[in-house]
Amino acid sequence: MPDPMPGYDVAELRALDRQHVWHPYGPMPGRQEPLVVESASGVRLRLAEEAHGQRELVDGMASWWAALHGYRHPVLDEAVRGQLDRMSHVMFGGLTHEPAVRLSAKLVEITPEPLQHVFLSDSGSVSVEVAIKMCLQYWKSVGQPRKQRLLTWRGGYHGDTWQPMSVCDPDGGMHSLWSGRLPEQVFADAPPTGYDAEPDEAYVRHLREVIARHADEVAAVIVEPVVQNAGGMRFHSPGYLRVLRELCDDYGVLLVFDEIATGFGRTGTLFASEHAAVSPDVLCVGKALTGGYLSMAATLCTTRVAEGISSGEVPVLAHGPTYMGNPLAASVACASIDLLLSQDWQGEIKRLETGMRDGLGELVGTPGVKDVRVLGAIGVVQLDHDVDMAAATRAAVREGVWLRPFRDLVYTMPPYVTNDEDLARICRAVGAAAREG
After folding, report:
1. Residue 8 known to be catalytic
2. Binding-site residue ranges for pyridoxal 5'-phosphate
3. Is 287 among the catalytic positions?
4. What pTM was estimated for this model as a whole?
5. Among the options 138, 157, 195, 411, which is catalytic?
6. Is the pLDDT of residue 179 over 90?
7. What integer pLDDT is reported at residue 3 of this predicted model?
8. What DSSP letter does each residue of 135-202 carry, written as one string?
């Protein structure tokens, strides 16, 4: 990575940041000084100034799980540059263009049958908003307007906009502030943990009872398949997805899978629902869709859902983001998907999984550690106490790694291109953060 050539004073930048910039999940003004990133390449973030003895950090977060191929990848850079020579954006209402059409066709090709139709949007939360709108409008269009509620299980997280907040965990989630104001949805108990565990019959009965009791008013069940991510990084048996598919079919309820975090290989299959060999009626993807380059998400649905909406009194899906189908984002998304599928991505995920099982496994039984779990390119250390984020972050940075712990979790979801040496460094940093956090 080249030496930085900043055209700014770092101290001035920090002062302006503190005065004007509201960072995610933080107060205004901020209480912690963010590190200033000058550039990024491969799996490394180059800081504008040294922090805790380090000038470069291995990114153990893949920029909130999106940068599958790392930074400044020549294939993805070229996709953006080439599209800039044609057009950076054009409205999608009444117009179309090759990048968006090719991306939509590609998504249909790689996602489970029978998903056939693609609505492009700007972010994961919006893709969930669109999914919910699809489900509510479907039932209204087919003459069952009472089906207006959503059903999910506790422990989930689906985004920060209004309807997605209503299906996040109502107690342990980040949105309890809005209790009593959000739409009241139906919550089943959280699924029992353990990817390899057989489905618990008592829990299966519980799911059936809850869905049966509310079937007349529930439009859709929405869950994160296999991994509940920002709600607690919990893994559950794929068998529960098969149970949900059967129950939704039995009781006339649509099924929505939120694969914003798990899509594009993160759990070891291209989409997490493939662990269960089932398909939803509606699927949300985002984050890694563009390889971490630009914000874009997509909501896919079956022909049944699309035709149901189109047969209604209002035969359109009344949603239209300004930057819908952005050509730059669509072009780099196509390039990212092609790049992923052109490689032995499953072998790389298995290599990362093995490395994290070995590296993080050393923390099992150490003081303060409640659980260690790994699935695909996800490694999680759960503490027996809430993490001190500032202390844990400092410990990781001293090891030359960027991590972002939360609640009682120190975890990593690294870029797929992370080599064995850097992965070992990430595991050491997770250990340091767990000990000092």
Report:
1. no
2. 124-125, 258, 321-322
3. yes
4. 0.96
5. 157
6. no
7. 52
8. HHHHHHHTT-TT--EEEEETT----SSHHHHHTS-TTTSTTGGGTTTS---EEEPPPPB-TTSPPPHH
